[in-house]
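Predict the 3D structure for this chain.
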Amino acid sequence: MRLLYLLFTLLCFSQFTTDHLQVNASKIIQGNHLKIILEFLPAQNFHLYWWNPGDSGESIKFIVELDEEPLVTYPILLSGPKEIKKEIITNYILEGRFLAVLSFDFKNLPNSGLINLDYLICSDTCIPEQLSIKFNLESLPNYENTEEVNQLDFTSTLPADLSILTLESSLQIRSLESSIKFFPYDLPPSAIYQETPNSVRISSEKPNGLLFVSDTAKFYKIGNFYVYPSVSYQKNNVLSFLYSVLLAILAGVILNFMPCVLPVLALKSLKPTASYIFVAGATLTITVMGILVSGAVEGIKNLGWGFQLQNKIFVFWINFLLFSLTLNFLKVFNIPFFGYAISVNSSSKFFDFFFGIGISLLALPCGAPFLVTLLISSSERSFLQNLLVFIILGLSFSLFFPLTLKFTALKKLTNLIRSNMETSIKILSLPLALTIFWLLWILENQGVSPSLSLVAYLLLGTGVSLLFSRRLIFSALLIFVGGYFASISLKNTESQGISEYGVVWDNYSEDLLKQLRDEGVPYYLDFTAEWCVTCKVNKYLVFSDHELINELKNLKFRFVKADWTNGEQRVTQGLMKRGAKAVPFTVIYIPNKGEVILPTLLTPSIVRKVLSED
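Done. Predicted structure below.
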């Protein structure tokens, strides 16, 4: 029998081996959906680590290279783990035969690919190993046991005899009839306390992991956790890089005209000479943010474009600076060295540098379409290429006005502004005021009271202004009271979702999407954020077309909103699952066709085209 099994394996699988591990690769193809099944066979008495390695070790790392870009990359499905304890060390391991399933959706299926595995294989000691699985899709054998693969997509529906109790800062799971064991995905073994064979306590109110129930001999999914392979696809690197450079130049120029960068237009107009300190501050900020968000730095995960505006504390205080700056321009506040005088003083290097940083942090989340494209394509470029692309983006953004102000017509306009400074500064304060209200609107959608924020701004700004007038006691009192109002305005409050454009939106979750797919219900999935101007334009253009909306309703579409305003982790994971790190990002799901990713900029005709395509 053993001989027959080995013969069957040789015929039906592509084999890849090291001294301690054999991996058999096969495939399941359903339309344009591809599953690559990896069957792991560690040598006797050897094991690998599960996602949570326990007290030691590292889990398997999957890096996939394909000759076609996947539209969607799904979480890895992996066989359930076992627990081993050795003295005071607990580990969650994979031993014997186990499976890993990598899943993708494509517009066109790839012809070939490469899967690199990086792992520790252990017995008494652990040995680091790497395995490269190079495959041609046509010659890769089919995997026949689809039921075994489907079972790895662990259900969240627990058996009826299980009860879950929420205790103080912990969760208790009990079974009336079965012994149970919980395997944490993102908690240390010390957070799991096995009270009895039928009861386990977890030191977390919202744990993520797998629960094994002996009565059914099955694993059940607790919470939400996703593991994705790192995926790249092969392109003409030279042409791709040159295209990225062109996009970086265009994106930098366009950023100067985005609505949330109106303060840039106002303040830069006051300074016709180039400040290389400002250019350095802006370019440095954009480069660092681009490298971080592109994932080029090891260890930086789940960081998306616009992450700074997802932080309500950042939004609150940068808006306070804009508020103080505007009222200082209008001479309501009197804060020395904090107004238009310093902005036109070429010797104010400190101001110029931090002005460049602040403006860049405020401008980038606007998410011009070119920026989103640059970010999505960052995985195709090397670290040095990404570094150069984001430096070019920063230079294009920060040098645009100094270079264009060399034109005669713009010089005359600038001289006119400077010759009538008192009147001009009041006019140029208008875009600053509009930006303040825009940021207050963002804060309101983040659960922060805009009225309390304004009270805090006024008290704090007046207190700082009086500080320079040497009215110290009154100044300290106002700053203290303003700080109190700031703290209470920043406390979490529930923000209510509303119906938009006559459409009721469901709150996003992958469980909801899976349910809709299982039921054959089409859906319109909108990844959006309140600070994303392009998202708002997209929604207005598409949903103001009443005929299109009625058509979607007649087709029984469900509308799902993935709100990324506060940077929710589940929304970040949903974006990453689909190969994105920025909004706007829109997906239409049609049964028997799958999820279709729409362009960054939308029109009703684009949506209609997707609906009409076979």
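Residues 1-12, 340-346 have pLDDT under 50 and may be disordered.
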